[in-house]
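Q: Can I see a sequence and its folded structure?
A: Here is a first one.
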Amino acid sequence: MDKVNVMLEPLRVFLTQIGAILPRLALAVAVLIAGWPGTRAALWPTTAMPTSSTCRRGSSFERSTRKPGMDSSLSSVPPV
């Protein structure tokens, strides 16, 4: 009988370690599930705002290089 206990000891240790990590894993999953809607709610005002045409036009690459005069120097660079 002692031989069986010696053979089952690694299994007991393994199951004890699994039992120790399950509450932490459950807490991590609960934090992720609870945080997902909170994050979406916090990001919604910034991503759902309608952009005006002037805002889109002002952020274009062509306009930002044309205004300081960089468009001519960029046009002389060969394409990659």
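Q: Show me another, different protein.
A: A second, unrelated one:
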Amino acid sequence: MTCAKEPIEQERLTTTQVAVKKLNIMYLSLLREVAQRDVKEAVVRFGVEQSVAERIASLDVEQVISQADCSILQFKMRAPIAMRQAFKQDVDEMRRVAAIASMISDLKPIS
């Protein structure tokens, strides 16, 4: 989980880059917090390798922010199995979109 580019200058950030940076900070901060409590839980919940969880757990806040200062997402969103299967089905595009939208509206927050 490294940023291939140099840190982005704050005054030149687009709206999308700001949103990506905020998402990266939130994701990495949460990963760090969970990994500091329990590395195995972080591996399962975030789908990262143990070495990545351990490395993120050892970062301080400034390092997390520096790691997040990138124009690409530092994580891959994982969809529920039913949603992934809907993409694979051979149905017309509108029915597929409707099915996925229905599944999204039915998602429950993780508690």
